[in-house]
Amino acid sequence: MVTREQVVAVLNRHRDSMVSVLPFDFTAGAPAVFDFSSANRELESIPVNDVAAFTEYLFERIVKHDVPVGVGRYAEDRVLYRHSPLFDGDSERRSVHLGMDLFVPGGTPVFAPLPARLHSFADNARLGDYGPTVILEHTLDDITFFTLYGHLSRDSLEPLVANVLFAAGDQLGEIGEHHENGGWPPHLHFQIATDLLAHTGDFPGVAASATRERWLELSPDPNLILRIPGL
User: Fold this and answer.
1) pTM attached to this predicted model
2) Which of 89-119 are b and which e, b meaning 16 or more Cβ less than 10 Å from the residue's Cβ?
3) Residues 113-150 pLDDT 10s
4) Are strands 165-166 and 143-150 parallel, antiparallel or unpaired?
5) Element (H or E) spanning 124, and its range?
6) Nearest CA to 170 among 115, 121, 132?
């Protein structure tokens, strides 16, 4: 089994060949970085279950920044997952975010950051889920790992064919609107996985606190690819 350390090392070796997953230069300035943990008391007055109001709250802040992207942090213990039974657990709700969220308008194109094979895709259409999802398989220096792209548009899935190859910079889809992306403000959930554990078209993006370390081992920091300064 490929380890987290192996994936971290190979991504650091190939950092200069990566392409941005969105059409923005993250080195051009500071994006809006959101705090969705219980430490952000402002969330208590924001109707996060009202997708239109929550979207307005986020994008009002994004527009004030140099890079028009909002960032939801990796490994954050969040309070956002109360609106859907999807995050219920047998003994503990899932709340630890395993990817990174990039909030941008619906229709924004999404690109493969590295050469890849299409592993799988699906429309995970439950409330709070990913909606349309694409998983790519990458092999660098004989190390195989995966990247997941959640909350895409349904149109993104229509042209996909099993095992199709992507070059770095090829468009793989576009950001979906709230009515098709699981009921969220428009954004990309981007995640790295060392092992998909036999999942296809889906992979957990949120973990329970009790299993946090195990899932973070399987899902290294997405900023190894995104390279957003300051995170």
Assistant:
1) 0.94
2) eeeeebbbbbbbbbbbebebebbbbbbbebb
3) 999 999 999 999 998 899 999 999 999 999 999 999 99
4) unpaired
5) strand 116-124
6) 115
